């Protein structure tokens, strides 16, 4: 299995000109107090591989530049510009793999070619990045609201999901795309702008019904909805398996309450978001007792549901032949020790340690010690601390 050999983080977030972090083919368990830089490891890996999805070079360069979009730069605040006026802070992220020959993935202001790197795109698709913020999004709703996982999927899941290829024409250029996040962006953009017909004063308008552009966009939306339904069906089969391994037996499933679409207003088409609910048909022998899970279930149970959904999606890509890893940053801070142990047992099972390189980051010294002890009991010698 392809793994990380080393990671060099230079003048990026917490890190200045430091020595590379040497993984040497191992999993990583890392403890650090708040403010010590451990989350910068998470965000460096996330930024590196998310950049593979960005078509606009400035969307990559902005992290390493104070000129392009100063509020978005992630340059270490103590890094010095050299030479003065160059906007060059020698800020970059570089990862080297254990492949033979090794592969190098790098991004900086002057190196944005990762967005054309098929291996990087495949790694981003086959890996996962999970932190407490992402897990808490499943409960970040007011009591008066129902849970709708639309933004959870758009923000945190679609970038790691591939759908069957769809086609869309923009400004005369045909685009073929498979990434769920990119397809949703096309739906948000709406129909192609074309020249009006049967008008004494031609102007640019959204594609009209009956046109090839309209039919092509309609086919894209329908394909997206079909693929989303299949993804939900897969989650509904696999997620309860992981949920049970985490110690919970009550059933839950996702339900697509409204498909994606578009609304014809007075002058423009507007994207209509899909609506995705969590349904708990039975809880503690009571039928239909939980209508608003975020108001009724405790944080441990909601976190277990979120983890189960993420691992279900990840399981569909287990056989991908590429660098695959799971980065977990303070994933379990909302859980008590009993629930943390269940999650650790699952992640350290053969199902995961044999298929992914695990990177576990925590500010909780007690959790760090517990995880290290669990690893010793399992006699796993492929870890660094």
Identify the notable features of this structure and list them briefly.
385 residues; alpha+beta; 5-stranded parallel sheet; 19 strands; 34% helix
Could you outline the blueprint of secondary structure elements for this entry?
Blueprint lengths: L3 E9 L2 E3 L3 E2 L4 E5 L6 H13 L7 H4 L30 E6 L6 E5 L9 H9 L1 E4 H5 L13 H7 L5 E9 L2 E7 H10 L3 E3 L8 E3 L5 H34 L7 E6 L2 E4 L4 E4 L2 E9 L2 E5 L2 H4 L2 H17 L9 E5 L7 H11 L2 H4 L3 E6 L2 H13 L5 E2 L1
Parallel strand pairs: 4-18, 4-19, 7-17, 17-18
Antiparallel strand pairs: 1-2, 1-3, 1-5, 5-6, 8-9, 10-11, 12-15, 13-14, 15-16
Helix pairs in contact: 6-7, 7-9, 10-12
Entry summary:
By secondary structure, the chain is of the alpha+beta class. The protein has helices at residues 38-50, 58-61, 118-126, 132-136, 150-156, 180-189, 212-245, 293-296, 299-315, 337-347, 350-353, 365-377, and strands at 4-12, 15-17, 21-22, 27-31, 92-97, 104-108, 128-131, 162-170, 173-179, 193-195, 204-206, 253-258, 261-264, 269-272, 275-283, 286-290, 325-329, 357-362, 383-384.
Considering DSSP H and I runs of 4 or more, what fraction of the residues is helical? 25-40%
Question: Biggest sheet, open or closed, and with what strands and sense?
Answer: 5 strands, antiparallel
Per DSSP, what share of the residues sits in E-state strands of 2 or more residues?
Answer: 25-35%
Could you list the spans in which at least 5 consecutive residues all have pLDDT below 50? none
- Which structural class should the secondary elements be placed in? alpha+beta
Question: What is the overall pLDDT average?
Answer: 86
End-to-end C-alpha gap? 21 Å
- Can you tell me the overall shape? globular
Gyration radius, in Å: 23 Å
The beta-strand count equals 19
Number of helices: 12
Assembly context of the chains: single chain
